[in-house]
Amino acid sequence: MENKKKIHKIYVDRKACIGVATCVVIAPDAFDLDDEGIAIVKEGAEKLDDNKLLMAAQSCPVLAIHLFDEEGNRIFPAKL
Ligand code: SF4
């Protein structure tokens, strides 16, 4: 139950992203930088390990990576 897959949607706020690429370093199968040096979500990324995705999102200095559950509720970053 603890290990149940929670993350079902990943969104990168491209206006917020500053291209530091820590997300790419942590989860290269989930994120990449495009020609503009801004992060994109790779196909199938939401199927990867939740912990890795969460770590990548937490590593983003501007919190540009948003994670959602099956019902579309935001998991990260938490609402203030
Ligand atoms: S860590 Fe954040 S700012 Fe850096 S490339 Fe990824 S989404 Fe963009």
Tell me what you see in this structure:
With 80 residues, the chain is an alpha+beta fold. It has a domain at 15-69: 2-Layer Sandwich (Alpha-Beta Plaits), CATH 3.30.70. It has helices at 22-26, 50-59, and strands at 9-12, 31-33, 39-41, 65-68, 74-76. Strands 1-4-5 form a three-stranded antiparallel beta sheet, with helices on one face. Strands 2-3 form a two-stranded antiparallel ribbon. Strand 2 and strand 3 (39-41) form a beta hairpin. Residues 12, 17-23, 31, 39, 60, 62, 64-65 line the site of iron/sulfur cluster.
List keywords for this structure.
2 helices, 80 residues, Alpha-Beta Plaits, binds iron/sulfur cluster, 3-stranded antiparallel sheet, alpha+beta
Biggest pleated-sheet summary: 3 strands, antiparallel
CATH architecture classification of the domain at 15-69: 2-Layer Sandwich
Q: Compute the gyration radius: what is it?
A: 12 Å
Instruction: Provide a count of the helices.
Output: 2
Q: Roughly what percent helix?
A: 10-25%
Poorly predicted runs are none
| Broad CATH class of the domain at 15-69 | Alpha Beta
Beta-strand percent range: 15-25%
For the largest sheet, list the strands in their spatial order. Answer: 1-4-5
Give average pLDDT, whole number.
Answer: 95
* CATH-defined fold name of the domain at 15-69: Alpha-Beta Plaits
